[in-house]
Protein 1
Amino acid sequence: MAENYVVSAIKYRPQHFNTVVGQSHITTTLQNAIRTGQLAHSFLFCGPRGVGKTTCARILAKTINCTNLTANIEACDECPSCQSYRDNTSFNVHELDAASNNSVDDIRELIEQVRYAPQAGSKYKVYIIDEVHMLSTAAFNAFLKTLEEPPSYAIFILATTEKHKILPTILSRCQIFDFNRITTKDTIEHLQEICEKEHIQNEKEALHLIAQKSEGCMRDALSIMDKIASFSGNNLTYSATVEHLNILDYDYYFKLTEALLMQDSSTVLLLFDEIMNKGFEGDMFMNGFTEHFRNLLMCKDDRVAILLDLPDSVKGRYFHQAIQVNTSYIINALSILNQSEINFKQARNKRMHVELALIKLIYIQQAVQVMSDEDGSLLKKKS
């Protein structure tokens, strides 16, 4: 059974335009181009990793050669062209990894192939060049003429994560599509669908953490979910996800803020000691605590609260705590944490540096800010 295991990123790779997540502006444009017969001869798909560039290129290659398109401009998966593509026996779709085939000779070999018409009655020959920014300058120049005036049956689809590295002469010859990072909401919905198909129990808070950790990359989200599902026995709980991803639980930040407001220095320092013993670095803690106060500030205005990318249960706790903290305290806390985070690398005693920042937060109302003016003399004023 273990030999037949397929990771979710491959098993659930979209096979049709309507299953691509979060890129409707691109899939709709491509489908309309196929419907009206206004296909460009060269495309450039660019965007962050794991958002569907190569997937869309493969779907486009399969769809334009399908002899029995559906009413929604999707491949039928039944005609000889679709079957040969599915079985990896198609002679009309060629994929080139430019990361490992980036020389002039590789491009000349590709150009030589372009001369031959498509086989088996297909209409197009499609060339997908992945990581195209890795091509050498000489290879790009060798490719220019073919890209500008290809045969009527040839379509080139270039994919890259770094558009700025591609020559302007190449960009001007391509129809450019910019892929977006996949939103947290779309990622969660897709993960939930897969969990249902795989019979994986899940908590929405856990899926939300996975979506945040993936930072808009669906491939990363699926890989993380696979790992945690194996770790927790197909039961994605919030606690298991926090443990596996080495994320500091929101609960610590809420407890610390309560202790700070009560000026309970013992509880604050003991909580920080507990955080350090769990293996979290000081800069990571301060970054998370800064984000916590930023979220509290967002909760002060309902119009801005929509910017909170949090599970509903956690969002409710933020609104509750925001009522207890006044805005001036939050702003001063953000200033102290931000400055401490900037100076963290220069500090010789990292732990004491963070503890000093926490002590400032405890007595922020009575704190005296010491600032240096242009002459280097010290100015003192109450915060």
Note: Confidence is low (pLDDT under 50) at residues 368-383.
Protein 2
Amino acid sequence: MAELRFKGVGIHSIAACVPSRIETNESLDYLIPKEDLEKTINNIGIRERRIADKDVCASDLCIRAAEQLFEDRSIEKEDIQALIFVSQTSDYHQPATAPVLQHKLGLSKSTLCFDVNLACSGYVYGLSIAYSFCTQMGCDRVLLLVGETMSKITSEFDRESKPLFGDAGTATLIEKGEYGESFFSLNSDGSGAEVMMIPVGGFRNPASVDAFEMTKDGRGNKRNGYQFRMDGMDVFNFGMKVEPKDIKNLLAFAGETMDNIDLLIFHQANKFMTDFFAKRLKIAIEKVPYSIDRFGNTSSASIPLTIVSELYEVFSERKKVILSGFGAGLSWGSVLLDLSRCKILKLTEY
């Protein structure tokens, strides 16, 4: 694992935007038998998800969140030296979406911009990159935009994925300042790449007409080659293996104990699973906020979305907060940081 420590860098503010359209999991009785549907909903903890319209991309949701941040916090756009866009659902294969966002947001042409293609660990990784830039001369503020429209790459006939994924966009402003120490643990295991993937459309398996054909797997899921697929049990086993251990390692690195932690915010993957993590880590469940019931799994955007939706005007004690994400890659990461000075903006809709 890579262990990173920063001082004098922190999160100034966070905003998030979700589509206004709501899709309930109760409507999936065409996919999951009614006698099993309520059990599925209770196990995963998801009752509804936000779904972007056909012409709305992850970048559009991030723009709305960023504009709210600029306006509500009176941020001068010329003060942004770097823009990082984290997403698996970018606007194009080429060019990168970050320069497009720089232009649409009216940032300076001298802004450093690039994309990061990471899934559920993406927010933690994105923060580590932004913190790193803010330790350098000439970079005082970084805009981290993290968003996903997973609904666009999920099959309507995938019993494992369809009930899980929703859409969201977020904006986080990272800056130099009078901030305390932050501690990161970052990890990966590419041997599990096939556990969660879109198999066709890149250059390993190029696009083809045949790949549009829907196929059915042994678990009853129907997808084409351009749609996201995962092995739910392998994901569960992966999370159980790495998450509690990584958080314990992070605490040891920071010289902290779980008793001193104010909040533990997991990537919103599956409530049954993350509840188990919390019990294993012996942290009170009231210190583990959830947004998964109303927004589903929004991949890399789930941690900042949970911060905005659940911490806005509540949880005054947030000096020692752990954020932890795990998913495709396989990739996982955790960070211990101080959110007591962070301004959390009210959730907005697109």
Note: The longest strand covers residues 167-188.
Protein 3
Amino acid sequence: MKIGIVLSGGGIRGIAHLGVLKAFADAGIQFCHISGTSAGSIVGALFAEGHDPEVILQEFKRTSLKRLLRSLPAASGLLSLAPTRDLFLEYIPHNTFEGLKTPLSVTATNFSRGVLRNFKSGELIPAIQASSAVPGFFKPIMIDGEMYLDGGILDNFPVEPLKKRCDFIIGSSCNHLPVVTEVTNFRRLIERASIMSINADFKMKKGFCDVLIEPEGMGATSLFDVDKTEEMYWLGHEAALKALKTNEKLAAIVQAAKQRPA
């Protein structure tokens, strides 16, 4: 059976995808294709290269990328994602889609033309940077003379690349919003409104998934709250473990994986 997984965008909340992937990997589930946008594209690329999710978590916590994200709330202007290139090259030195161990699709928004683009071949790192360039925080990424920004602007749950490639699709979303009765500040208001906007077509898209992992209330965490890194990982991991225990379809896949020759 060809199993694919789609990883949503969500800033620091995307760390939850690592926990989800770790639980599935430990259960013996193998993916034939990964589709991700924004934070999901970063996690997806590192996992597709063959890095262990728990190792990725620890490496993220030690890198200068954490310091870059910490500077965002006080930033007076747009930041460049150019410094992340060397970080990505440490873990994906070949810098190509073709060199990954698992096929990957990355979505980004062509800001020059106002359309979505799905990257699946060629140079990898610019595609990841473009997919992760959150508007209002990061400068657009230039690719072939055109500006690109975060894929979540137009598609925060890119399930379409998997529909014709996979028999079974798992979705991992980190943007579930809790019910609230008040908003304490302007930033929270804008963040909540933004998540509501990117979730607008999620109900329809999640219908294409055979299994959906969506930890409750995670959307309440701010986009760049790096202090929640560890918490996000374990929330995703626990949600995936719960699905593995309660979902009959997943249980059958795990059983088949155990019977697969080593």
Note: Confidence is low (pLDDT under 50) at residues 72-76.
